[in-house]
Amino acid sequence: MIADLFERLRALVFPGRWSRDLDEEMRFHLERETAARIAAGADPDTARREARLAFGGVDRYAEETRDANGVRPLEDLGADVRFALRALRRNAGFTATAAGVLALAIGATTAVFSVVHTVLIADLPYAQPDRLVRIYNQNSPTNIWALSVVDLQALRQETQIFASFGAARFTSVAMAGAGEPEQIPAARADAGFFTTLGVTAQTGRLITPQDEPPGAPAVAVVTDAFARERLGGPAAAVGRTLTLDGVPHTVVGVLPRGVAALAGMRVPVWPVLQLSPPTRRGPFGWRGIARLRSGVTLADARRELVSLSARIFPIWQSGFKDQAAHFTPVSLRRTIVGDADAQLELFAGAVVLVLLVAIANVATLVLVRASARAHELSVRATLGASRARLARLVATECLVLAGAATAVGLGLAALSLRLVGSLAPGLPRADEIAIDPPTVLVALALGAGSGLLIAVSPLAGVLRGSLTAWRGDLRRAGGGRRANAVRGLLVAGEFALAVPLLLAALLLANSFLRLERVDPGYDPSRGFSVALALPPSRYPDSALAGYWRRAVARAQEVPGVVAAGVTTSPPPDNGGDVNNFNLVSHPVPDGGAEPVAPWPVVSPGYFQAMGVPLVEGRMFTAADTGTGPQVLLVSRAWADHYFPHEPVLGQQLVSGGCYTCPRSVIVGVVGDVKYQGLSGNGEGVYTPLAQNPVRYATLYVRTTGAPEPFIRPVLAALRGLDPQMPLAALTLQEGLRQALADPGRWTGMLGAFAVVALGLSALGIFGLMSYVVRRQRREIGVRMALGAEPRQVAAMIVARGMRYVAVGTAAGLVLAFVEAGWLGALLYGVAPRDPGTMLAAIGVLLAAALVACGLPGIRAARIRPLEAISGE
Question: What pLDDT is attached to residue 702?
Fold first, then answer.
């Protein structure tokens, strides 16, 4: 069968060679037959004539051979394709418009499919990825959090359900070397982390258990890209020394080329994770990655981990009293994808709607073109073309048009995928997104499907129409009432699909505008921040408080600086710095889950630097040191939540599960600051820096005017304290813009889809009504000759077009009501079925449609009756 197919393709591609082969074969058979007849006694001329007759004539034999070998259908197809290309080339305007619209839609759909396939569907790039899970703590269906060192130790010893287990923690490190020090993202990992994922080193080795004990020589693994950019290549990187947080780390291995992220952490450097023995069940912040043993299901693992939690709870319950908390496994792919599935599913639906609108738009153009080709089709029918022959001609042209659009669309998709990193910088698995074989197959399927859908209406006209009627009326094809109804339905369908897209875009825009107007709780107009990290090699625990005190003092000495302060939790997106607590006056029941809240550590000048007001009580002072009473400040929202009808000042807390530690006393209430996103509730509990020395913090500086001129002097002052400290400043305004970047980016992208759909819909109704005016030019001329006013003619055209729009809008509202339920999680301050936004969407759509219908109406009103009647 394969050989036969190859022979047919060869005959189609090389018709001349195939014809020569056929002639030689025919000549061979004729010579044999002639020789046989001469041997039987016939004279040569008679023998040759009888031999030719025996084969039924050479020409007939050749034709039968072509049919038998299946070459004629392929040749006919080739001829149809060549004719379609010539026809499309002759109508360059139609071809460019239709192919361009379709190419944009196919390209966008292909690109979005590639992203969705990679992020949501494709397996992770590890061996047996379905066996990989991440382990969390959980105490309710919606509350899960990371692990502690105690948890890691317990899970490492679990061998019944785990084939391997590893841990890692995302962080940032100060890297010193040539030039100024810099802060880079990193992830500290143990040997089990790499073993569990099944990762191998391209050069050198990975981290081993011998590297993990505290005090062992510090080592690190780097990515291939980092090795090439900073260390002279993978081979030269092994053995080099990186100074990270003041500690020399020897590079022992380089990850394989193309591996930019592991278990969802995209960092260039992986230092070894060395853990000291824990003294309590906390703090929490480590990631545990496990590979389930063969045959162990997720449900099996969940049961065993609940049992393990119960076994270790009594050992540490003096500092962790949440008996409901237990370990739970979650698919690693699910944890990497996170909340991206909601946005990607939204955009996948949006791009499919755009594709359908584009197909309807191009189908309308093709129907108009079919009407213009009525004369050609009628002539072909008159000359004997069958219904199947005409249908094949029409279908081939539509498929060739879709094929050209697919080729261009694939190129557009490839270009757009290069922008994924800038359009969606936080998108998981972004480095894996590419035009792969499944994406190409989907693009080809989209092209073929689009071509067939576009061909449906003209094919129906050809297959169901009367060829006899066509021969008598050259306007029959594409000009009947049924064809006009189909065009109207296609245009109405475009508007029906545009309504939910436009509504979704306006809802997200409304939500984004409300988010922009949210008060973050601080004044960003005259301030900037500097992130700082104190490495243990240069700053022992006893030196931490002294450095922060000197840093604040140095910043305040700069002329023009009004206030300066330090915090561990830069707002507005720092919801990870939380702490559990228990109210002494309202304790949770034994074994119950303690509440948690954002828990920044701050210096006394922090609130003045951020412009956060004091509501009640007092601020922190220099007297709040580690030797004095443990004091706290709380936000107004926190006070209203936990003490709505009681005085909050003087209330005592047990924090961090440490019931043997001194109680903390609330001494003041401050304004609400957003730490859990701009849509958060503003709750927060503050503890003084002098009582809780930290290594990683952010210095905030308030200035007398615009912050930019003061950044360099403040950095110079800080560099005078420690020349090896990496320093980078960020204005508070820029920090707020970064917090709004993702919702703004998603809103802009969906808005672009909506504008395209609206534009295509308007173009569709404009094209249809222009066609109506062109076909009914004589009728309009007669109406005007009989006394119709130009404005009445224009109103007639507009009213006819708006009827199609009204039908489509009504259908679109039904779709929009269904779609609105999917948007709830993405909106802030606006309901998914907000009446005002819905009316605005309808108003925008009707305004665009009115303009699109009004232009042909104006053209109709300008028709001169005598010219229209005589021109017909």
Answer: 95
Cα 831 versus chain centre, distance: 24
With tokens 């305040």, the residue in question is 556
792 within some domain: yes
Same domain, 381 and 301: no
Final residue in a domain of this structure, among 13, 48, 70:
70
Which of 52, 70, 88 delimits the end of a domain?
70
Per-residue model confidence (pLDDT) at position 669: 96
List beta partners, residue 665.
631, 652
Q: What does residue 455 show for φ and ψ, rounded to 5 degrees?
A: -80, -10
Q: What is the rounded distance in angstroms from the CA atom of residue 524 to the CA atom of residue 520?
A: 9
User: For the chain, what percent of residues have pLDDT higher than 90?
Assistant: 32
Distance CA 548, CA 561 (A): 17
Considering the domain architecture, whether residues 511 and 627 belong to the same structural domain is answered as no
Residue type, 170: F
DSSP strands (E only) in 568-692? 578-583, 596-598, 601-602, 614-617, 631-635, 652-655, 664-670, 685-688
Contacts of 313 (CB under 8 A, 6+ apart): 320, 323
Does residue 709 sit in the same domain as residue 770? no
Domain membership of residue 606 as a residue range: 539-723
Cα–Cα distance between 169 and 836 in angstroms, integer? 46
Name 601's bridge partners: 687
- Cβ atoms 178, 315 nearer than 8 A: no
Terminal C-alpha separation, the chain: 58
Which amino acid, one-letter code, is at 551? A
3-state secondary structure of 532: strand
Per the structure, the count of domains in the chain is: 4
Instruction: State whether 262 and 384 are in the same domain.
Output: no
Q: Are 605 and 563 in contact (CB under 8 A)?
A: yes
Residues 6+ apart with CB under 8 A from 513: none
In angstroms, the CA 608 to CA 522 distance is 10
Characterize 72-90 residue by residue with b for buried, 16 or more Cβ atoms within 10 angstroms of its Cβ, and e for exposed: eebbeeeebeeebbebbee
Query: Residue 202's pLDDT is what?
Result: 93
Q: Are 841 and 830 in contact (CB under 8 A)?
A: no
**What pLDDT score was predicted for residue 762?**
87
The amino acid at residue 660 is T
**Rounded (10°) angle between helices 481-516 and 835-861:** 140
What's the token pair of residue 383? 């000359």
pTM above 0.90, yes or no: no
Cα 360-365-366 angle, rounded to 5 deg: 95
What pLDDT is stored for residue 344 in this prediction? 81
Radius of gyration of the chain (CA): 37
Domain contains 214: yes
- DSSP letter for 311, please: H
Show the tokens assigned to 277: 């023995």
Distances (CA, A) of 791 to 451, 854, 864: 40, 11, 14
127: three-class secondary structure by DSSP? coil
Judgement on whether residues 566 and 674 belong to the same structural domain of the protein: yes
Q: H-helix or E-strand containing 793? A: helix 790-820
Q: Do 569 and 511 belong together in one domain? A: no
Q: Going by C-beta distance under 8 Å and a sequence separation of 6 or more, which residues neighbour residue 206?
A: 191, 194, 199, 200, 221, 252, 253
* Beta-strand relationship, 247-254 and 219-222: parallel
What is the model's pLDDT at position 320? 75
Determine the length of the chain.
872
Taking each helix axis as running N to C, give the angle between helix 149-156 and helix 298-316, from 0 to 180 degrees, rounded to the nearest 10.
130
Residues in the chain, pLDDT under 50: 1, 5, 9, 12-14, 18, 58-71, 466-478, 872
Q: Both 372 and 462 in a single domain?
A: yes
